[in-house]
Specification:
- With 419 residues, the protein is mainly beta.
- It has one domain: Beta Barrel (Porin).
- It contains two helices and 25 strands.
- It has a 16-stranded antiparallel barrel with strand order 1-5-6-7-8-9-10-13-14-17-18-20-21-23-24-25. It has a two-stranded antiparallel ribbon with strand order 2-3.
- It is globular and about 70 Å long.
Length: 419
């Protein structure tokens, strides 16, 4: 499997390199492909088990205490030391002849981040095409979700990039951007793919695509010499089920019962000389597809037909990041989120679908340092997480009660080789 994967990548590289030498028309620009990426090695110590992704590289929350059938011991209080070197990344930036009066470019990016069942499995990240006119840009393809706003994102070394306080989501999209002097307006139509919601049938993008309404996002940004600020709004409609079985007759019938989810964000970044200060705040319904805490549940169920109504949870997120330095950098990241409950009371005993749905609040503090010499960077950070797990009170809009503090720490040392 690994040999086939490597041969495929080598073949792709040769094909793209050959294609880059072709002149479309005598008077046109040639297609050019520039390769870049990095090799990454991580050694990390975890003080307890975590809710994570990518074979443990991406930490979200410390696991809750588990003392059931454990003689009072916490079964998740297990420390771990690991070393992984499969987080390599390869990117090809493509430029070519003009089209429709616009300059054209594209990007293909993949990595080897997830081991899965075979070490170094290839993972698809970005694939987009851009058309750029004088003040207008059109992007079509898979790229960072606009909620990520990558220009204002944490400078942590962990691959979680600040999640679950910061969105982590790449989506297929059509994004139109218009520049107006120092202001930029953008609008996007997006569709879920790998980054999808949890629901009655597990994790699936179908909850969003079955609604027939794209995820819609609008954003406005202001940028000066040292300051970047922006605000945005995000809308999606979710259809958790397409068919319902009557609990009394056993008859299966179709349903189009869904619900809407809104999110609002604001962010700012100040960057001058060696100092960088950035922060972002998000108020969101049901945002678990972006690897953030979020959920939805049933607000009613018809005892005869089985028809259901749903209500989303609302969470508030805030993070800030301060960095100082050039070759040698030092900084600190802080994040916090709070579960504000669902919009309505929930059906007693009914399931809640989401991520971190039984966490009332959580915070993270991460001091970090890094040193860069040439193409080598060595970095270290100490990620301290505190989550307050509890029970879901269905009769009080699903709020979390009887919370228990759970702490977890990751010490991470990373070496990059950029090319």
């Amino acid at each position: 499997m690994m040999k086939k994967t490597l041969l495929t990548i080598i073949g792709m590289a040769f094909m793209l390199n050959a294609f880059s030498q072709v002149i479309i028309e005598p008077a046109s620009k040639p297609v050019e492909v520039k390769w870049s990426g990095f090799l990454m090695n991580n050694i990390f110590y975890d003080s307890r088990k975590n809710v994570d992704a990518l074979d443990g590289l991406l930490v979200l929350f410390p696991m809750p205490q588990d003392t059931v059938n454990a003689r009072g011991n916490d079964l998740n209080d297990v420390s771990n030391l690991n070393f992984v070197s499969f987080a390599a990344r390869l990117r090809s930036a493509i430029s070519g002849p003009d089209a429709l009066g616009a300059s054209t470019s594209g990007l293909i990016e993949f990595d080897f981040t997830s081991r899965g069942t075979s070490s170094g499995a290839v993972r698809f990240r970005h694939a987009w095409v851009k058309l750029n006119w004088a003040t207008t840009e059109l992007l079509v393809g898979r790229a960072w979700h606009p909620m990520v706003s990558p220009e204002v994102a944490p400078s942590v070394n962990s691959l979680n990039w600040g999640a679950p306080f910061q969105p982590f989501n790449r989506s297929d999209q059509i994004t139109l951007t218009q520049k107006l002097n120092q202001f930029t307006l953008s609008g996007s139509l997006l569709f879920q793919n790998d980054y999808a919601l949890n629901g009655p049938k597990g994790k699936s993008f179908l909850y969003q695509t079955n609604s027939l309404i794209p995820n819609m996002h609008a954003q406005i940004r202001y940028k000066s010499a040292y300051l970047l600020t922006g605000v945005g709004v995000d809308f999606k409609r979710i259809l958790p089920e397409t068919h319902i079985t009557s609990p009394t007759t056993g008859i299966i019938h179709s349903t189009n019962e869904g619900f809407n989810s809104l999110a609002f964000l604001g962010y700012a970044k100040y960057n001058k000389g060696k100092l960088s200060i950035s922060s972002k705040s998000i108020l969101a319904n049901n945002i678990s597809e972006s690897m953030m805490a979020g959920a939805f549940g049933m607000s009613s169920i018809d005892p005869v037909t089985g028809d259901k109504s749903y209500t989303p949870y609302k969470h508030w997120f805030l993070w800030s990041n301060v960095m100082y330095g050039s070759d040698f950098k030092a900084g600190i990241f802080g994040g916090y989120f709070k579960n504000l409950g669902a919009g309505k009371n929930l059906v007693p005993g009914s399931p809640i679908y989401g991520l971190g749905e039984n966490i009332a609040s959580m915070y993270r503090i991460t001091p970090m340092i890094s040193y860069t010499s040439g193409k080598i960077m060595v970095a270290a950070e100490n990620e301290y997480n505190v989550a307050y797990y509890g029970s879901i009170d269905h009769a009080n809009k699903g709020r979390i009660i009887n919370t228990v503090k759970t702490e977890g720490m990751r010490i991470l040392v990373t070496m990059y080789y950029f090319f």
